[in-house]
Amino acid sequence: MASSNQKVTPARVFGFLLSHWRRQPTVAIAISTLMAAATVADVATPVFAGRLVDAVGNPSRAVANHAAMAALLWLAGLGLAAVLARQAAFWGIVRFTLRMMTEIKQEAFARVQGFSTAWHGESFSGAVTRQVLRGAGAVDMLNDVIFFGLLPTTVMLLGATAVLGWRWPTLGAAIAIGNLVYVGVTVLLALYWIEPAAELSNAWDTRVSAGLADAITCNATVRAFGAEAREEARLGRVLAKWRRRTRRTWMRGVTTFSFQSTMLVALQLLIAGTAILLWQQNRAGAGDVATVLSLYFVLHGYLRNVGQHVRETQRGIADMHELVGLSASDFSIHDRPAAPSLHIHRGRIEVRDLVFRYGAHSTNLFDGLSLAIDGGERAGLVGPSGSGKSTFVRLIQRLHDVQGGQILIDGQNIAGVTQHSLRSQIAIVPQEPTLFHRTLAENIAYGRPDATLHDIEHAARLARAHDFIARQPKGYATQVGERGVKLSGGERQRVAIARAFLADRPILILDEATSSLDSESEAAIAEAASCLMQGRTCLVIAHRLSTVRAMDRILVFREGEIVEEGSHTALVARPGGLYRDLFERQALGLANAA
Ligand code: ADP
Description:
Layout: H1 10-21, H2 25-56, H3 61-114, H4 117-122, H5 125-167, H6 169-217, H7 219-224, H8 228-280, H9 286-304, H10 306-328, E1 349-356, E2 366-373, E3 378-382, H11 389-396, E4 404-409, E5 412-413, H12 419-423, E6 426-429, H13 440-444, H14 453-462, H15 466-470, H16 489-503, E7 507-511, H17 519-533, E8 537-541, H18 545-549, E9 553-558, E10 561-566, H19 568-572, H20 578-585
Parallel strand pairs: 3-8, 3-9, 6-7, 7-8
Antiparallel strand pairs: 1-2, 1-4, 4-5, 9-10
Bound molecules: adenosine-5'-diphosphate (ADP).
């Protein structure tokens, strides 16, 4: 799977959390201390409840009054202190968690942006987005469960055992053993009985969403084939399975709850019984029995949630898995240490003995390819689909590292210069330009964000895009629909050409659209493109006759080799040549050749 190249264990997840906690040590310690203090106040409360009972039982009215008031004051003070401490801890954790989530999202984004094209090619953008967001959400859940669940529960269990064990060691031992059994059984049930079932039902949950998304995305196809009923039946089958799996999980939850409640009743009887025994032996009075019972009720509240805390911790860890994997992985192409910038004066591209294959492939796509493209030359790349044209232009941008040979631009090996300096001198007009969901002006100015509206308009005019932009409701301020869907293919390409005009870079890579355009768009694009090519070194993956004719030289690719080269006229004149064959088979040019 492309999302991680490191094994992620729960320990790594905790390590990741800890590394983020360490960035805010004071807040982390303050939250822990406040929550521990609030819990200690909870542990102490029953002691004063016991004193109150003792006080009202005192035969002297004056002494009783005085002691009762003192106990009441203590109860009030402890209650108030617990409320204040928790409130402060809540304030702290809001700030603490939000800062962590912000940093985690920001850093994950920066990492993912830096990952190689190969990684991005293998990963679904939706899935990566979900991994990051789900992981950041899990941080919120884990912070809450650790600081407000597990930490106070531990303090409570230790505190209750200490308070009782200090006066009556037998009772302390009984409560300690009772707690251990309860927590142990709850944890085991949560991890080994509920969780496996929950994992399965979650998997079906995911399938339900995936099924829904798939059918809704492909709605046009569903409708075209009148397959609505078929799709509903399909979803029905998935839902039926989801319901069976989810029912099992929920029923296990219900059974566990009943089992826990039974254990808690047993624990209550054990504690109350021991207290009565101590009373019978004259080792405990009415106040003591009140203390023991109230302490049990406080403890009960904490114990009830142990199972939930365990499950939330586990789910949080699972949800953070992929995020931690992303953070620990490195799929980037690295600049060499102290790499210089690329300086272009002529724009001559030279390829020497190039060897390249895609990661998983066993044979080389390019095996010793050599060629040179002069500064300012317009080179057309043609050849059957899969012959390596797109890969070739990707290698020029160093989107993949090569296994052998060199690519030189004005004598500088592109592997030795910074990637930023290389790519910022190459303008690209892709086959299917993707536009940001921003305004047309922002999209055109993407390569030069400081461009004025005047510059943007000038570039759009050169790209023959001004007229259709002027017809948009808000002109250059019109928001492009998501991924540019509101524009036609030809219009998107002209926006991309305008972008390249404005970026004004010495090297141009143009990948012609294969999809058929109306003749008006086609003529406008051809005009704009030939204007854009002037004065730059151009690599054009060409599909149209009008384009190839305008090239200085045509390079014909086949299976990673250049089998023919020359001008259009020279190549069509060559009997039995691949170019001539391609040309003849596509009487109207090379529209479908690649
Ligand atoms: P063209 O642009 O001429 O159609 P490509 O450069 O896209 O050819 O593809 C050349 C070969 O490399 C094809 O066999 C293709 O399947 C393979 N290929 C292209 N991209 C990848 C990739 N990201 N991973 C693995 N193989 C790829």
